[in-house]
Amino acid sequence: MQLIIPDHYDPKLSVRETQDAIRYIRETFQDEFGKQLNLSRVSAPMMLEKSTGLNDNLNGYETPVSFTMKEMPGKTIEIVHSLAKWKRWALGHFGFEPHTGLYTNMNAIRKDEDLDNIHSIYVDQWDWEKVITKEERTTETLKATVRQIFKVLKHMEHEVWYKYPQAVHKLPDEIRFVTTQELEDRWPDKTPKEREDAICKELGCVFLMQIGGKMKSGKIHDGRAADYDDWKLNGDILFWYEPLQKALEISSMGVRVDAKSMAAQLKEAGQEERLALPYHKAIMAEKLPFSIGGGIGQSRVCMLLLGKAHVGEVQASVWPQEMIDQCEAAGIHIL
């Protein structure tokens, strides 16, 4: 367990005021986000049948919460890690056309998460996915979409300032683009997280590109599942977060794999057996739409806009009692 206690922390809002602000931010953000990216809201599963291959296996070592059910003997049901693969399947299933897409309120459990100020075993995201053409699988498409999301976040800063002027956390005026290789070249002796902190402190907000594949050093910046993002066309939206003096990731997103990139990435990851799963067969046969998508952390956005010190101030989860006690002593009120 790792915990940062900011000096002289002031939550600005009471617990009840914070609850009201959470509702306001979540409802306002999703409406503006859907409008800006031309996305329709859909209902999504909280659990998936394991053999479909639709559950996100994250870095490959996290194990999902799973169970069996009386009416489906011999089948394993998994609580989702995220809906990265399901969303792309849903685009085809629901018949979305190019430049349209979906978003959903995604709730997941990641029981192997290391807990700290910004990580919880409970994950709440706006998961989204949008159809693009094969020709639009480019860096330009990726950057244009990132700028749209940043525009929505800046709009939300204004909305929160109007309603809660005493609490709003000021955001940078622009987002900059940088690759993981550029960070390794600049700071070869730093760890990947130290590089993220350094570039975010310098620039305020960055979209860190090309995560998952090996860099010149032979190392990876961070783990990414091999079968949804194209590692050359993905990235994270990161803000320098003054209350914690570190980078805060708001979104992980990317252009999704095509047959060629998925086969190459699964080979690099030593997971070629996944090619036998139904979802992966559909990608290889080009039976699913080409798409771009990602997840935007709902609680992370609330943290960012309200200047909160702990994600537990804006979501209800399970925390070690030691962490709860330390936070309460510092005026950090865990829900």
Automatic annotation (TrEMBL):
CDD domains associated with the record: AsnA
Listed InterPro entries: aa-tRNA-synth_II, aa-tRNA-synth_II/BPL/LPL, AsnA
Catalytic activity: L-aspartate + NH4(+) + ATP = L-asparagine + AMP + diphosphate + H(+)
PANTHER family recorded: ASPARTATE--AMMONIA LIGASE
GO molecular function: aspartate-ammonia ligase activity
Pathway info: Amino-acid biosynthesis; L-asparagine biosynthesis; L-asparagine from L-aspartate (ammonia route): step 1/1
Family: Belongs to the class-II aminoacyl-tRNA synthetase family. AsnA subfamily.
Top-tier EC class: ligase
Coiled coil residues, start to end: none
Organism: Lacticaseibacillus pabuli
The name this protein goes by in its record: Aspartate--ammonia ligase
Keywords: Amino-acid biosynthesis, Asparagine biosynthesis, ATP-binding, Cytoplasm, Ligase, Nucleotide-binding
EC number in record: 6.3.1.1
Cellular compartment(s): Cytoplasm
Boundaries of every Aminoacyl-transfer RNA synthetases class-II family profile domain copy: 23-320
Cross-referenced SUPFAM superfamilies: Class II aaRS and biotin synthetases (SSF55681)
